[in-house]
Structure formats: structure tokens, C-alpha cells
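Please predict the structure of the following assembly.
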Amino acid sequence: MNHFKKNALSRIIAYFSMEIAVDERIPTYSGGLGVLAGDTLNAAAAVGFSMVGVSLLYRKGYFFQRIDEKGIQREEPVEWIVDDFLVEQTPRVKIQLENREVTIRAWLYEVKHNDHTVPVYFLDTDLAENDPYDRTLSGFLYGGDERYRLCQEAVLGIGGVKMLRALGYEKIDRFHMNEGHSSLLTLELLREQMAAVGHEQASWEDIEAVRSLCVFTTHTPVASGHDKFPLGLVKQVLPFFPVHGELRDIFCCGDFLNMTYLALNLSHYINGVAKRHSEVSRMLFSHYEIDAITNGVHVPSWLSSPIQKLFDKYIPRWKEDIFSIRYAISIPLKEIWEAHLINKRLLLDFVNREKNMGMDIDNFTIGFARRMTAYKRPELIFTPLERLNAIARSVGPIQLIFAGKAHPKDEEGKKIIQRIHAIRPSLVPEIKLVFLENYDLALAKRIVAGVDLWLNNPKPPFEASGTSGMKAAINGVPSLSVLDGWWIEGCIEGTTGWSIGMDVFQLQEAKEGDYSNERDAMALYDKLEKVIMPIFYKNPEAYALIMRSCIAINGSFFNAQRMFMQYVLKAYY
Ligand SMILES: *Cc1c(COP(=O)(O)O)cnc(C)c1O
């Protein structure tokens, strides 16, 4: 082993995330952020890197989504048996919340590849010795009020560092904050630093020592994605929080604790999750250097088995060298198409069995599944419905498969689900529309591989990266997407998929009024009607060629191993 590799592999990285999706049976995630965290830990295990994950245990999950015939979402606690999947660890640590001591325990999950293991610890406060309120902190992900969230984030950040020490991790080379929720970990690192050098008051050198340990990834330009807490509440919940003194501005943002600014101030390396997202983040946070590492998906987790069989046949050792997926370009088109039909059959059988839809394998099938919220514009393809109806009549039948949860407090998101349900009676018989309940890892895996086209039309510039289109690409499913997030990098028009509406340069030049939902919808319809559906219905070989290019060109790059190696070079080393 060469010197660099040996050196790199001896480093230990602690990866903190409010949500981590490592197993479809463990409901400790809500969506993209958690999936990315899980894929990152998997990539670390696959390349043999020493990483340890830290998150919270949610005994009731995010929520189980039920939708009635009117499209009304009901949220139920997820029922799951923690010790079926996780192993209780012996150490206990304590943190102070308000005037109480809260005891924390950890549960272990091991991410394994070949003979390498990456441990993930889920922190839990549901212990008999804790106050009843504190026991509820390992209840719901993104539930409760401000106080509940702040307490959870203290358990994650402060409790997480303490737990790692108690578990025997004395030397940790980097603390990676995956989004700002965990940034209270910097306070605990500062306390450790001050104790080590015998300081009563923190000095600039102490701050620098913490900064040299921390890296931060920001994941969204949407304001609600950046937690902030009024200092009054912070002072109550965390009586030791430094709201006075010379270093105040490092910790406080006016009258608030802003978790994003705390992470920005105390990290020496900061990145956004796609090139465009970093540019947008540099505008939002203009005093910071913000690099870009574009997201990727862990290929073995997202690859359907028919496509995996083709990889095994035509690209031996693809798992060892992820870039060799590029050579998918020599897989015979016929075999790509046949593998796709197996995936499509599986998905449509599932839809037909669950929802009695009678969807047909010969018909053009579009997937749209992600969090149901306004900026993702799930209804764009129905704006106006007459145009969609006309396209299905003139070019060919369309099958639409939707899925996604709305956050329990996102009233608009919930209304979107209702309105999509209400559209059904106004569709011509050539269009079939289904909304599948409870979007999760397992359902995502079915949908991304089984549709003919992956649709994504968020309002720019709010999609930081987006990853579900990458999951589709690795399975040979092209995207039709607005040029935002990863798609600016991934779209080669007509080769890996198609764009909707303005490109980045046009968006930057655009004046008030140039940009509208109606214009984007028009562009979407034009692409479907004049470009994509004619290829699908009249020239399947050309469609298979695009599918193959998706795998070779985008699958070989937008994967978690490439992403992880960039983190090693830029952030961990
Ligand atoms: C990948 C994934 C997401 C993220 O999808 P985006 O397109 O990035 O918004 C959300 N939920 C689940 C279950 C996923 O697998």
C-alpha cells in the first residue's frame, strides 16, 4: 500500500447527520438528506475508509403516510422494533438540558462491505432515569416545536461527541456536519479544547483548534432548511451557551442561534452539494469560502438486479473500480432494453396489484416521486391539463406514477397531494395517474428503475442537488428536468436526457416576468410532445441508446464513491 493511501486510511472521520437511511427497515430518515448520509457511509465502507456515523434514534420514525381516496394525508407513527436491527451499547453519557441531566445511550448498526465495517450509532434518550419529556426526544424526526428540536440537536451534537469518546474514539481527525442540525458539536469540541489547555475563557487559538477539526456541508438554499432558535430559548435550554463576550459573534447571529452560521464559523472546509448550489450558497453566505462536491448515489444500493447482471457480464470488477461503469457504453442495446422491461414489468405489476390501475407495459411511463412541497412544483405537468390530454390523444398514452410525503406541518404540500388526486376524473382515457403511498427507500428503488422517464421540475435555484435522478440514471432511466442542481452538470441534451426551460445563463439574465410556471410547463409539454414521446413510440432503439448513455456517462460519475473520494481529498485529508 502506498504512503498516501496508508495515511488516508489511518484517519478517522466522524459523520454527524440528523437523519441517516442505512436500511429500508430502519425508519430514521425523511428523504434526500438521510439517503445521502446512508450512501456516504456505504461508500466509506466500500473504499475501506475509517468513518463512524452518528445520528438520533427515532422510535416513531418520520411518519407512515396513509392517503385516503380524497388525497388527504394521514400521518401515523412508524411501528418498528429497535432491537431487531440495532445492538445496544453499554456506555451512557449525560448532557445538561435546562436544569436537568439527560442520560443518553447508543445503538449500533454496522454498514459492511467486503471485510470493512463502518459503525453507525443512533442516540437514544428513552431511558427510565430520564424526565418524561426527555424520553420523548427519541420519538419523531422533524416533529415537535422549537424547544423539542433544539433539545434533539443538543443530544445529537453535544451528546454525540461525548458518546464517541465514551465508546473509545479518542482520536478523531475530522467532524463532518452533514447539514447544520449537528453544529452544537462545536461547543463540545471547544469545551474539550479549553479543558485540555486549562483555559477558563475561550481564546482565538481555541476556536482555531476547533475549526481545524470541522467540516460542513450545506444542503439547501431554502430558508426553512436552516434552523434558527431565539437566544432566549437557547439560554434556557443550554444555560452554558456563550451569548456574551468577545467571541459572541461566532456563536450568535443577532438575537438568534443560527445553526448554519455556527457551522460556517467553526469549519475550515465548507461545501455545497452541486456546482450551482455552491454558487447560490456563496451569494447567501457571502463571507465564506464555499467549495462544491456534487452528490452521488451508492450504486450497489440503487442498482436493480437486471442491470446489475449486465454489469457483471460486461464490466467485470465494476464494483472495485466504479469509473469503469463508463464501459457500459458497449453493452448491446437489446440487452439494455430487455433489462429495462423486466424493471418496468415489476413496477407496473406492483402498481396494478396495489391500486388496480391496469397500467400497460407498452405505454410511456413517467415517474415523479419526492417530497411534496411547493418549490418542487409537482403539479407543473398538469398546467394546463388540456394540453397534457391533447398530447396523450395525439402522440400516445401516458402513465404517471407519483409518490411523496408532505411534512406534517406543510399545509400547502398536503393540498398538492389532494389536488393531484382530484385531477383523475378530468384525464382522458389515454392517461393513467396513480399516487403511491408512503414513499420510502424500497418504493424509491422500484419507481426509479421501472419508469421510462424521470421528471423533475423544481423552481430554480432551490434544488440544491437532487439525487433521485441519479438513481434513475444508473438504471438507464433518463431525466427530463429543469436545469438546476445536479442536472446542470448531468444533462447532455438528447444524450442523457432532456432539459426544461431556461438554462443557467438565461436564468441569470432573466428579468422579472420572464420566468413563470406557465413558461416552464409549456417547455415541458413541448419536449414531451415533439421530442421524447416520438422517440419512445416510433424509435425504441434510439430510446435504448439514450438509456445506455445515461448509465455510462452519468452512472460512472454521479455515484457516491466518486463523491466520497472528493471528500477525502478536499475535506478529510
Ligand atoms: C432519493 C430519495 C429522496 C430524494 O429525492 P430528490 O429527488 O433528491 O428530492 C427522497 N426520498 C427518498 C425515499 C429517496 O430515496
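Residues 333-355 form the longest helix (23 residues). The mean pLDDT is 96.
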